[in-house]
Amino acid sequence: MEQFDIVIIGSGPAGLAAALEIEQSGLKQIIIERENRAGGILKQCIHDGFGLHRFKKRLTGPEYAELFLKRVIEKKIPIYKNTFVTEIIEMENKSYRLTLVNSEKSLFEIEAKALILANGCRERTAKQVFIQGTRPAGVYTAGTAQYFTNILGYLPCKKCVILGSGDIGLIMARRLTLEGAKVVGVYEVKDTPSGLSRNIAQCLDDFDIPLYLSKTVTKIHGDKRVEAVTVQKVDLNLNQIPGTEEIIACDGLILSVGLVPENELAKSLGVELDTHTKGPMVNQSLMTSKEGIFSCGNALHVHDLVDFVSESAEIAAKGGIRFVQNKGEEELIHVEFDEKSFLYIVPQKINLLDIEENIHFYFRSKKVLKNVSVVIRTGDTIIFKKFYHNMKPPEMETISVNLKNVLQNKEICFELKEGVST
Amino acid sequence: MIAKYYQFDIIINKPIICTEENNAIKLEGEVSSWQEVIIAGKVAAKSKYRGVINKITVKGITVPSFQRPNFTDNIIEGQRPDVLIIGGGVIGAAIARALSKWEIDLMLVEKECDVAMHASSRNDGMVHPGITHPGSLKAKMNIRGNEMFEDLAKELDVPFKRTGMFILFNSWLEYLFGSTFIIRNAKKNGAKGVKRVKVKEIRKIIPNIPSDIVGGVTAPTTGVCPPYEMTTALAENAIMNGLKLSLETAVINLVETNNEITKVITNRGTVYPKVVINAAGLFADEIAAMANDQFFTIHPRKGEIALLDKNKGDLLNTIVSQVSANLLKSDTKGGALVKTAEGNILVGPTAFEQPYKEDYSTDYTNINALLEVKLPIIKGIEKGDVITYLAGTRAATYKEDFIIEKSKKIKNLIYAAGIQSPGYASSPAIAEEIERITIQLLKEKREINKKKNFMSVRKGIPNLKLLSKQERGELISKRRDYGHIVCRCEEISKGEIIDAIHATIPALTLDAIKRRTRAGMGRCQGGFCTPLIAQIMVEETGKNMLELTKKGDGSNLVSKFTKS
Ligand SMILES: Cc1cc2nc3c(=O)[nH]c(=O)nc-3n(C[C@H](O)[C@H](O)[C@H](O)COP(=O)(O)OP(=O)(O)OC[C@H]3O[C@@H](n4cnc5c(N)ncnc54)[C@H](O)[C@@H]3O)c2cc1C
Ligand SMILES: Cc1cc2nc3c(=O)[nH]c(=O)nc-3n(C[C@H](O)[C@H](O)[C@H](O)COP(=O)(O)OP(=O)(O)OC[C@H]3O[C@@H](n4cnc5c(N)ncnc54)[C@H](O)[C@@H]3O)c2cc1C
Fold it and tell me: Per-residue pLDDT tens for A274-310?
């Protein structure tokens, strides 16, 4: 059985960035990818807007992935493609044994001292948002519609309703319009859009595609192929308002109703999950509750910008390297936060024995806010504050703080204050 | 002629005309709701007539006839089979398999593009223990069917699990009366092993039942088996033994002369069978009417079902339902939590009357109510675990029992009709009985012998995920495609999908592939694998992507090429 220091699962932007980081340490690694090409979801994102932070350039998804992939190939970092991880078990010596399946080597096992879960996320489905009615052809998640359109070259529908104003939905609204399909409208159940503002402007406004807020699709009609959908208004608690039903003729329903970190492998390993992010609970080096298992990218929490996916992968990779080279001790504290203000904060835990370097925090606000300050408090002392003119749930924020010698009572708490905090 | 207004005016307050036809009671008139149609039928069912023909209409509602293929050709024109079976659900398929043991020319027509597209793929997949309705044909067939099921599943390579079932009570009074009632019925029917169980014993098997449960009843013979796989397996085994299966073939009319069916007219040609078996499920009454022999009406009783993510499967390893005063009042009584043979927890079904036989839409209020009542039966499952829901309709007659008999009027017509729940559990027994009746009828015409070379064993598509690592590895080394995972949620390989496409009954639609292999049945509901399966279908069938469908004509996956 082949032994590795670190095994990376997933070759999306997260997996590739992690691999390049590990390469510098000289540790023995391998990437496992179940698809036939590396690049993850970026392969099908042919629009531009990737890499603005990292490379100060507007790249397309494949271009962004290519920048990493080229170096991965140059450095001869091995990737098992078309290879599926069917089982991971923890061995007595604390290493992990992975059972892999592919057509070349059939069923085989490898062993790793550390694992980096970079396996991305999946889309929520029509059933998961409880749309009822019939189950005809023509109901697709935005990602599936994107695959049909961008990779296979087929339009999934001629006239569609898009449910959910997440970025993929907005991007698909534009894409389908450019390909000659009619997008009747984008419907969003919440009273604010879920996607980035720049996507609302560039994907909807520029193409006169209407965006309807506080409205959702409740029913699908048509036995064989979608013939219409019922849309309905919802109140502020997102309950459907009877009597507001409207039937809209269309032959497709495209759903962009949220992404969920893919955490089946993590779950099978007994990794503790965060109910807010739906990804694993991690410390500042992105190690999960299981020693030696790290998580990054969309598998950890859903990112809107790929730049931060790569960044989180590098953090996880560094953590993995340190773990393999000298298993450090852990003394963990929870990062407290005001649940009314924040959707989530990652990392959820701090290892007090490892706070030499700056810690990167990623978070989202729970609602749209103007003129607020994020305050980090330990005991009665404020150790960090930052003012924001705007803050909204679709846009992930990130801050970097040094906690060395400042944590009192082993406590850290995130708060949101109105205005400029003093 | 029966008393004109009977007792309906008291209940319905509308004139209902009752006449006698074909020894059945026939109702006519117009009422204002479907509910009233059902009430009238139920009252009439209490009469001494052998069946109820309910022709009452509701103002503003037109009930459609069956959906049928929109093309015609001559592919089966002029065929003269000994036996023609109408309907490719589990009943038609089981009958076909039973009759394929005999030296006869056998044909089955099914209007859809695959078998098991109606009730037989839209049910709980439960092999009931037979503990209700003593004295009915349902009870008799259920008990016998249950006995036969396990061996049949083994022969046909379909997973069967004898999970047992627990009925829980949360009040001593209901427990006392309820359990006595169930056990008495079970005894009358001859169901084995049905007895009271203490909470402590139940907890050993289902640890996370609610704290207020006072006791339960166990029915250990209960089992589960995937119904679409079973139906496919039965039909495939029958084909191995000579059955001619004609899909997308709807029986549009029957020609009857001198109380004998002489011609069966379909959209794919006219057939001249010696014997006709009516296993047309929800439309068995329309087939009877085509033969001028209607004596019952099918009223579709809809049932909705929700399926939970496999990752919660470990919370239940049996079937559990709960009886409580609250439940008895609710519309969703009868449903259960079922651990399916495939490993998901299934919730349901609901049960309510509505006019449309092929309306399989689900309803927000019903599904919500179902989940609210059923999910609390075991702790740890919640609404967020639902991955999909579906609906089916039960083919109920007003007499609420199976009709398994030779027509009293038409010499060469045999009925397997009114096969509502527990029709799936009963299917092997129903087939056995129909086999007996059919062979007897044929023997009146000529000598019939059993086949010497009947093949009772059929191999299905291997499910690699369920094999041992060694077996799986060996299979992959022989067929590389078995190592290429396409459906990540259910871990289904390209090889398995190719097998399904080229199986004895080829799976040529996305849904058919799903029913054969489970690809697309997992938590992402085909999000990742749909385009990949579509590509495999293109490679394997030579069809164009634009021609591929989800479930037959008119359900195309994509609309057109992109511009680029
Ligand atoms: C439609 C869309 C539009 C976007 N638009 C933008 C944009 O304009 N600008 C921007 O900056 N960001 C954008 N993003 C966000 C960004 O692209 C993603 O956040 C990023 O791709 C996530 O990277 P990842 O590596 O975590 O996951 P992925 O890219 O999803 O990669 C995960 C990889 O892991 C593999 N894998 C998963 N499980 C297993 C397993 N068990 N075994 C083996 N392999 C496995 C998968 O096949 C996949 O290749 C967009 C995302 C989407 C979906
Ligand atoms: C929600 C629900 C849950 C259930 N749960 C269970 C359970 O757990 N256990 C159990 O034992 N039973 C259960 N049942 C009952 C069980 O599903 C049925 O009894 C069984 O599937 C009936 O099989 P069938 O072959 O008679 O009907 P079907 O499967 O409906 O087959 C009839 C076939 O005839 C075809 N047909 C109709 N008209 C024509 C025509 N004119 N020409 C050609 N073909 C035609 C139809 O297309 C159809 O395929 C349940 C039913 C429902 C609805």
Answer: 999 999 999 999 999 999 999 999 999 999 899 999 9
Contacts 24+ apart (CB under 8 A), B17-22: B18/B44, B20/B49, B21/B53, B21/B294, B21/B295, B22/B53, B22/B293, B22/B294, B22/B295, B22/B409
Task: Give the domain CATH number at B252.
Answer: 3.50.50.60
Query: A126 to chain B: which residues are within 8 Å by CB?
Result: 525
Choose the residue to mutate in B111, B225, B354 for probing ligand 2, maximizing ligand atoms within 8 Å of C-beta.
B111
Residue A132 alpha carbon to ligand 2 centre in Å: 22
pLDDT surpassing 60 at residue B326: no
Q: What mean pLDDT do residues B357-370 have?
A: 94
At B207, which CATH number? 3.30.9.10
Q: Structural domain of residue B506, as residue ranges?
A: 464-547
> In this complex, which of B526, B552, B559 lies closest to A157 when CB atoms are compared?
B559
C-alpha distances out from residue B362 to A133, B300, B309, Å: 5, 15, 19
What Å distances lie between residue B84 and A385, B186, B281, B437, CA to CA?
Answer: 81, 36, 15, 14
Between chain A and chain B, how many beta carbons pairs sit less than 8 Å apart?
Answer: 146
Give the DSSP letter of residue B48.
S
At B4 the pLDDT is 47
ipTM: 0.94
Exposed, middle or buried, A340 (CB in 10 Å: 0-12/13-18/19+)? exposed
- Grade residue A422 by pLDDT with cuts at 50, 70 and 90: low
B132 domain residue, yes or no? no
Query: With a 6 A CB cut-off, is A226 part of the ligand 1 pocket?
Result: no
| Residue B515 and residue B526 in one domain | yes
In chain A, residues 266-325 whose CB comes closer than 8 Å to chain B: 267
- How far away, in angstroms, is B154 Cα from ligand 2 center? 22
Give dist(CA B447, CA A166) in Å, integer: 71
- Judged by a CB distance cut-off of 8 A, whether residue B317 touches chain A is no
Residue B345 is assigned to a structural domain of this protein = yes
Question: What's the confidence (pLDDT) of residue B8?
Answer: 60
Does one domain contain both B242 and B364? no
B156 in a structural domain: no
Instruction: Please indicate, yes or no, if residue B368 is contained in any of the structural domains.
Output: yes
Q: Is A347 in contact with A47 (CB distance < 8 Å)? A: no
Can you list the domains of chain A with their CATH numbers?
Answer: 1-122+259-328 (3.50.50.60), 125-257 (3.50.50.60), 330-422 (2.60.40)
Q: What is the mean pLDDT of residues B415-419?
A: 98
Question: Are B354 and B420 found together in one domain?
Answer: no
The answer to whether the beta carbons of residues A330 and A351 sit under 8 Å apart is yes
Find the DSSP H helices in B192-226: 199-205
Count: domains in chain B: 4
